[in-house]
Design brief:
Layout lengths: L9 H4 L4 H7 L5 H21 L1 E6 L4 H4 L5 E3 L1 H10 L4 E5 L2 H10 L4 E3 L8 H4 L3 H10 L5 E4 L4 H5 L3 E3 L4 H7 L4 E5 L2 H8 L5 E4 L12 H8 L5 E5 L5 H6 L2 E2 L2 H11 L3 E5 L2 H8 L6 E3 L13 H10 L8 H17 L3
Helix pairs in contact: 3-16, 5-6
């Protein structure tokens, strides 16, 4: 059972967290915030003592994303921010492969994962042995691996990518053909954006693969002004039914730049809450699909991790250097 230091009562902390609540007041009732506020205050106080930084993915709930996170973003942004961190302790509010990536880029720092069971269906869909078999089947073809994979799989790859930079990474290799693994739908979407032949694997995100084109059409019914923006991990027919497709960062940029009156973000639904909190001019229609792994990360678990400095993420030294190289090659593409 998780044991915490005594927390102040909500009535004692609400003034201290009032500015933070203002950020989420559009998407969270005050009564709910009062339940989170003691943890928010305790975490923010303790992370200063620990010289800790909290990295939160866009799919985290608003009380984490807006309440305690120091750095937020998609997988690419978190990888870059982890590499630049000057903190002694990194807490990853996301899923396990993200924490592994942070450790790869910060081997001398403590990297905490509030719940080690926060995994990913994509990461589970491919193994290092699968990569080795593919290299035998396609000799000489570069292996471009999505960051949504284990460090062991990254170690067998030539370079990593995210949904935000996959096209750029693939085209940077200057080859006619690549293996883009493990997300089949992302690979198919990338293939429509480049002249490079893209070979895919059969991995899928258990959140994005649930969306259907019929669902999109039902949401559009009676709403001629509805703008649909989808993540490339969605099935091709869903992307075809959308008005725009892109990474979570590009989806956010689209809303900020275009300020649609009504938008449907076809991705994990906490992201809609986080974007809606800062976009009062836009109405968000929510086709809510929750990631069960992201939702394993909670304020009490973050507080416990900071208190105990456990559980820590470690990467086997036998694979760390090779995996780090694949990630660093990806990051270097964005600097050219």
């Amino acid at each position: 059972m998780t044991v915490h230091s005594p927390l102040p009562r909500p009535t004692e902390v609400s003034p201290a967290t009032a500015a933070l609540y203002a950020k989420v007041s559009r998407v969270m009732p005050e009564a709910e915030w009062q339940l989170h506020a003691p943890y928010v205050e305790a975490i923010n106080r303790l992370k200063r003592t620990r010289n800790a930084v909290i990295l939160a993915h866009n799919y985290q709930t608003p009380e984490i994303f807006h309440g305690v996170a120091d750095l937020v973003g998609d997988s690419l942004a978190l990888a870059r921010k982890a590499a630049a961190s000057e903190a002694d302790v990194i807490v990853l509010a996301g899923v396990h492969f993200m924490a592994e990536t942070a450790k790869l880029l910060n081997p001398g720092k403590i990297v905490l994962m509030p719940d080690m069971a926060a995994g990913c269906s994509l990461a589970d869909s491919i193994t290092p042995a699968d990569i080795r078999s593919l290299r035998q089947a396609y000799p000489g073809v570069p292996v471009v691996t999505y960051v949504n994979t284990s460090a062991a799989v990254k170690a067998e790859s030539d370079i990593c990518c995210t949904s935000g930079n996959a096209v750029e990474v693939i085209e940077s290799l200057g080859v006619p053909r690549v293996l883009c693994l493990p997300d089949e739908y992302l690979a198919k979407w990338v293939a429509t954006q480049t002249k490079v032949e893209v070979l895919a694997w059969k991995g899928h995100c258990e959140v994005h693969e649930r969306f259907t084109a019929d669902e999109i059409r039902r949401f559009r019914a009676g709403h001629d002004d509805l703008v649909v923006i989808a993540h490339p991990e969605c099935p091709p027919e869903v992307i075809a039914a959308a008005d725009f497709a892109g990474s979570t960062a590009r989806m956010i940029d689209y809303v900020r730049s275009n300020k649609p009156a009504r938008v449907l973000m076809v991705t994990e639904c906490s992201m809609s809450d986080n974007v809606a909190a800062a976009a009062p001019e836009t109405e968000f229609v929510r086709p809510c699909q929750l990631c069960p792994h992201m939702k394993r990360i909670t304020l009490p678990k973050i507080l416990a991790a900071l208190e105990t400095l456990e559980p820590r993420v470690e990467v086997d030294p036998a694979i760390a250097d090779r995996a780090r190289l694949a990630v660093e090659r990806m990051i270097a593409v964005g600097r050219r």
